[in-house]
Amino acid sequence: MADPPSGTVTFLFTDIEGSTGLWEDYPEALAQHDAILRDVVESAGGQVVKTTGDGFFAVFGRVEAALMAALATQRALAAAAWGKTGALRVRVGVHTGDAEFGGGDYHGPAVNRAARLMTAGHGGQVLVSGATAALVGGRCPRGRSWSRWGRSGCGTWGAPSCFTSWPIPTCSGGFRRCAPWMPFRATCRR
User: Fold this and answer.
1) Class of CATH domain 7-142
2) How far apart are CA 7 and CA 70, in angstroms?
3) How confident is the prediction along the chain (190 residues), in pLDDT tens digits per residue?
4) How far apart are the C-alpha atoms of 115 and 12, rounded to whole Å?
5) Has this prediction a pTM greater than 0.70?
């Protein structure tokens, strides 16, 4: 990575929902996914830290850039022609915090929290930590709004943390319940 951001940074994690069969049957769809994600991250000013098999781990020096990349990811994936696989459903988690860069990777609780937040979502969702939302003063791009998801009091997070969802205008219907420690259901709103 060329000149990785340091100090307080914003992490974006993605994961394709139900990707196991895709790897074997449709490797071209995963290559298309990777090209889309890499383009979105780099166009927003972020850097890909690494790919995680069926997902991405990216870092941004600016919170707003990470949030725009999260939204652009869902839009680009929804607009792509996927052929036999149908649309890929990707979950996205965004969290901001302090982390150390070393050995070509980031380390620290903020990285773990960003990854954990992403796993709580479902394909088509963007989950954003309360810390990240607070850094932009709760502002969203024109025409978007936050949906409050609830609090996590689980031991791995220490103090309770708020999570919000950024409804994506291309998603359809409501979403299943998040992980057991996130008790609220959200719907897609414009």
Assistant:
1) alpha beta
2) 21
3) 778 898 899 999 999 988 877 878 888 999 999 999 999 999 999 999 999 888 999 999 999 999 989 989 998 999 999 998 888 999 999 999 999 999 999 999 999 989 988 888 888 888 888 888 888 776 665 555 555 555 443 334 433 344 455 544 444 444 444 443 333 333 333 3
4) 8
5) yes
